[in-house]
Amino acid sequence: MKKLVSMVLALAVLAVFSFGCGPYVAKDTKVKCPKCGAVFTIDEGIKAIGP
Q1: How many Å separate Cα 47 from the centre of its chain?
Q2: Which pTM value belongs to this model?
Q3: Which end of the chain has the lower number of beta carbons within 10 A, N or C?
Q4: Domain ranges of the chain
Q5: End-to-end CA distance of the chain
Q6: Confidence at residue 23, expressed as pLDDT on a 0 to 100 scale
Q7: Predicted pLDDT of residue 42
């Protein structure tokens, strides 16, 4: 019984760490122009591709 409980707890901890902040991470990259020094934000991921 203790082995089963420890296995379930280990899987729960693993799930928390693997799914922890996945959807909350920003998927944009900031790029600085070498000529003028302006900073542009570029979207990454599937949403940046568009329809």
Answers
A1: 15
A2: 0.39
A3: C
A4: 2-46
A5: 52
A6: 60
A7: 79
Structure-token pair, residue 6 = 């420890």
Q: Could you tell me the two tokens for 13?
A: 């901890």
Which pair of tokens denotes residue 16? 């928390």
**Which H or E run contains 8?**
helix 2-19
- Tokens standing for 29? 């990259």
Residue 27: which residues within 8 A CB-CB, separation 6 or more? 43, 44, 45, 47
For residue 43, the cross-strand partners are: 28
What's the one-letter identity of residue 35?
K
